[in-house]
Specification:
- This protein is an alpha/beta fold.
- The chain folds into 4 domains: about 5-230, Rossmann fold (3-Layer(aba) Sandwich), CATH 3.40.50; about 245-320, Elongation Factor Tu (Ef-tu), domain 3 (Beta Barrel); about 330-440, Translation factors (Elongation Factor Tu (Ef-tu), domain 3, Beta Barrel); about 455-635, P-loop containing nucleotide triphosphate hydrolases (Rossmann fold), CATH 3.40.50.
- The protein has 17 helices and 25 strands.
- The strands form 4 sheets. A 7-stranded antiparallel sheet has the order 7-13-10-11-12-9-8, with no helix packed on it.
- Strand 2 and strand 3 (about 105-110) form a beta hairpin.
- Helix 11 (about 480-490) crosses helix 17 and helix 13 (about 515-535) runs parallel beside helix 14.
- It is globular and about 100 Å long.
- It starts with 6 loop residues before the first helix and ends in a 6-residue tail after the last helix.
Length: about 650
C-alpha cells in the first residue's frame, strides 16, 4: 500500500514518477514466539495510516472473537492470516506486506518464531537487507533470539535493529533495556554485524514505533519508522564484479540472439568485455536490452537481456562475468548449511544441488563442525538434525561457479533438494573451495593391517621411516638435492622413494593446475603416497614448492610429527632466476603466470622448518650431508 499524497488527486503521473524513484528496503521481523513480530508490523501499518478503512473495520470485528490484545484492536491479525495462526496466536508461515512512505518503499517479511518453523524464517530472510530482532523485555536474550540472529548473519544480513518490545510490562525500565542491550552485544561479538541499533518500544501500545513516546523519554534514538526510512542498506553492494546468471536465451527472430537474466552484482555497459563460464570464451557487450528500450548502463537487481558482438555458445545456467574478475569454480565446495527437515543429514547421502548456475547431483561428503547456537562454539557432529547449522563439504558432479556468499548472495547460495520427494532439505551459503584434506573416507572402508610389524621393517632396512619435505621457490635446488639425497641413501644401503613435484604432476596429478587449491591438492596426494611409503618402513623424499605454510602444516599433520622433517631450501630469488632455464620467472613477470610463487603469488616464510639450506651458498654435497646428519641425529638411520 502506498502513502497518501496530494499528488494522487492533482498529478497522478508526477506521483507515480516520484514513487518509482524511491529506493526499496526489504526487511524481516524475527525472534521467539510471542515476542510481538506480527503486532509490530500491524502497528507500523496502522500508525502510518497504511490500512484501508474496510480492512480496519474487519480487523476490529475479528479482534473481538479471535484477538489476544484485550479491549484493543489486535494488529497481529493483519499478518496472521492462516486459521491455525489465529487460533494459536502464533505465526506459522511467512507473510509479506508491502507499503511505502514519503521517503521509501518497503517489503516486510513476517517470519515465524517457533523453532519448528525455522525453515520458514530462512526463506523470509534470504532476500532481506535488514533484520528486526524482537526481544521480549521480560525474558531478554533467549536461544531463539540467538538462532535467528545467527541465521540472519549467515544469510548476509549485516544490518540489525534490536527491538526490545513490551517495555510497558517492565514499567518502561531503562535499566532493563540496558541489561538486554549488554546481553545481546556480548552474544553478537563473533558475528559480522554493522553496529546494531537498539530500540525500546511497545508494539501493542504504539510507543516508539512510528511516533516517539513520553514513556520512553530517556531514549534519545530514532523511532522504528525513522530508522527504517534512513538506514543505509546500499553500503557494501559489489559494483565491480559483474555477474549475470543466464536464465534464458532469447531468439525472437533470426537477427537477434540475447541472453536474459537478472544482474547479481556489478555494472555493465556496451563495449565491456565479458567471459562466458564455464566455457571461458570471451566477447564484448553490444547492447543492453530492456522492455523500456536499450540502456547505457545497468546495475545489480536489473533484469536485462545482453547481446554480444560475437556468436559464442552461451546456454541457460551459464554465467556471464566481467573479464579479469572471474568467480571461483570447483566440484568440491565448503558451505554453511541450515538443515530444514526431520530426516537427518548423514555424510554420503545424495541430493540435488541448485545454485546460480543450475542443478547438479551432489553428496555431502564431510561435516566439518556443528555450531552450538547458545555459545557459537564449533562442535564435532556425525549427522545433522532439524534446524542444525553446520559447516560441511559438498561434492557435485558438475563444476560449480560461485562467489563466497559474503561477497555475493546471488551466486553464493545453494539449496539441497531430496531426489525422491523434491522437498528442499537444506539451505546453504557457499564459503569457499572445498579441500580434500578434510574429506572423510566413504563409509564401509576399513584399513587393512599388515602382518609385518614396524620393528621387523626397521631391522630389515636399518632405518626408521620418515618423510623429508624439501620446500622453496622454483629453481631453488630442491629437486637436485632430493636426487642426490636419494643416491646417498641408496649407497648407504637404505631404502628411499623420491617424490618430485613435476613427476607427480605428470602422473597422478595431471588433472591439476597451479591455483592455490590445486597446489594444495597436489601436496595432499603426495602426502598420502608418502604416508603409505612410510608405513612400509621406507623413507620418502619429497621436493615441492609448497608455498603456503598452512598447507605444509596439513602435510605435517598427515604424516605425523614423529615422521616428518621439513627442509627449507632458502635460495635467494636472484639465484633462482639465473638458474631458471624454462623461462618461468620471465613469463610470470609478463603476467602470463598468475599464481607463480615469488612473483605473482606469495611464499610463506615461517620458522617451523627443521633445517634451512641455502643452495646458492652451499654445494649439493654439503646440503645432502646436512640432511643425512639430521636424519642420523633423529635416529632415522642405523649403521
Amino acid at each position: 500500500m502506498s502513502h497518501q499524497s496530494e499528488l494522487i488527486a492533482t498529478d497522478i503521473e508526477a506521483y507515480l514518477a516520484e514513487h518509482e524513484r524511491k529506493d526499496l528496503l526489504r526487511f524481516l521481523t524475527c525472534g521467539s514466539v510471542d515476542d510481538g513480530k506480527s503486532t509490530l508490523i500491524g502497528r507500523l501499518l496502522h500508525d502510518s495510516k497504511m490500512i484501508y478503512e474496510d480492512t480496519l473495520a474487519s480487523l476490529e470485528a475479528d479482534s473481538t472473537t479471535q484477538g489476544s490484545a484485550g479491549d484493543q484492536v489486535d494488529l497481529a491479525l493483519l499478518t496472521d492470516g492462516l486459521k491455525a495462526e489465529r487460533e494459536q496466536g502464533i505465526t506459522i508461515d511467512v507473510a509479506y506486506r508491502y507499503f511505502s512512505t514519503a521517503k521509501r518503499k518497503f517489503i516486510i517479511a513476517d517470519t515465524p518464531g517457533h523453532e519448528q518453523y525455522t525453515r520458514n524464517m530462512v526463506t523470509g530472510a534470504s532476500t532481506c537487507q535488514l533484520a528486526i530482532i524482537l526481544i521480549d523485555a521480560r525474558h531478554g536474550v533467549i536461544t531463539q533470539t540467538k538462532r535467528h540472529s545467527f541465521i540472519a548473519n549467515l544469510l548476509g544480513i549485516r544490518n540489525v535493529a534490536v527491538a526490545v518490545n513490551k517495555m510497558d510490562l517492565v514499567d518502561w525500565s531503562e535499566d532493563r533495556f540496558e541489561e538486554i542491550r549488554e546481553q545481546y552485544l556480548e552474544f553478537a561479538k563473533p558475528l559480522d554485524l554493522v553496529a546494531p541499533v537498539f530500540l525500546p518500544m511497545s508494539a501493542l501500545l504504539g510507543d516508539n514505533v512510528v511516533d516517539a513516546s513520553v514513556n520512553l523519554a530517556w531514549h534519545d534514538g530514532p523511532t522504528m519508522m525513522q530508522h527504517l526510512e534512513t538506514v543505509d542498506v546500499e553500503a557494501g553492494i559489489d559494483i565491480e564484479s559483474f555477474r549475470l546468471p543466464v536464465q534464458m536465451v532469447t531468439r525472437p527472430d533470426p537477427d537477434f540472439r540475447g541472453f536474459a537474466g537478472t544482474i547479481a552484482s556489478g555494472v555493465v555497459r556496451p563495449g565491456d568485455g565479458v567471459v562466458s563460464l564455464p566455457s571461458g570464451v570471451s566477447s564484448t557487450v553490444e547492447r543492453i536490452v530492456t522492455m523500456d528500450g536499450d540502456l547505457e548502463v545497468a546495475g545489480p537487481g536489473r533484469a536485462i537481456t545482453l547481446t554480444l558482438h560475437d556468436e559464442i555458445d552461451v546456454s541457460r545456467g551459464d554465467l556471464l562475468v566481467s573479464a579479469g574478475s572471474e568467480p571461483l569454480r570447483a566440484h568440491n565446495i565448503d558451505a554453511m548449511i541450515v538443515w530444514l527437515t526431520d530426516d537427518p543429514l548423514t555424510p554420503g547421502r545424495h541430493y540435488l544441488l541448485q545454485s546460480a548456475n543450475g542443478v547438479s547431483n551432489a553428496v555431502v561428503t564431510t561435516i566439518h563442525h556443528h555450531v552450538d547456537i547458545d555459545t557459537l562454539e564449533q562442535q564435532p557432529a556425525k549427522q545433522l538434525e532439524l534446524n542444525d547449522i553446520a559447516s560441511v563439504q559438498v561434492s557435485a558432479d558438475c563444476e560449480l561457479l560461485f562467489d563466497p556468499y559474503r561477497s555475493n548472495r546471488a551466486t553464493g547460495a545453494l539449496i539441497l533438494v531430496d531426489r525422491l520427494s523434491n522437498a528442499t532439505v537444506g539451505a546453504g551459503m557457499l564459503t569457499g573451495v572445498g579441500s580434500s584434506w578434510d574429506r572423510a573416507p566413504e563409509d564401509g572402508l576399513q584399513s587393512q593391517a599388515s602382518e609385518i610389524t614396524s620393528p621387523e621393517r626397521a631391522i630389515r632396512f636399518g632405518q626408521k621411516p620418515c618423510t623429508v619435505l624439501l620446500t622453496g621457490l622454483t629453481a631453488a635446488g630442491k629437486s637436485t638435492i632430493a636426487t642426490a639425497l636419494e643416491r646417498e641413501l641408496f649407497d648407504r644401503g637404505k631404502v628411499a622413494v623420491r617424490l618430485d613435484g613435476e613427476n607427480v604432476r605428470m602422473g597422478i596429478s595431471r588433472d591439476l593446475g597451479f591455483t592455490a587449491e590445486d597446489r594444495s591438492e597436489n601436496l595432499r596426494r603426495a602426502a598420502e603416497i608418502a604416508r603409505l611409503v612410510n608405513n612400509q618402513g621406507i623413507i620418502a623424499v619429497a621436493a615441492f614448492v609448497a608455498p603456503d605454510a598452512a598447507v605444509r602444516g596439513r602435510f605435517r599433520d598427515l604424516i605425523g610429527d614423529g615422521r616428518y622433517l621439513e627442509v627449507f631450501v632458502d635460495t635467494p630469488i636472484e639465484v633462482c632466476r639465473r638458474r631458471d632455464t624454462s623461462g618461468l620467472y620471465d613469463r610470470a613477470d609478463d603476467g602470463e603466470l598468475v599464481d607463480f610463487p615469488g612473483v605473482t603469488y606469495g611464499y610463506d616464510r615461517d620458522e617451523t622448518y627443521d633445517l634451512r639450506l641455502d643452495a646458492g651458498a652451499n654445494t649439493v654435497g654439503e646440503s645432502v650431508t646436512a640432511i643425512v646428519e639430521m636424519l642420523a641425529s633423529r635416529g632415522m638411520l642405523r649403521g
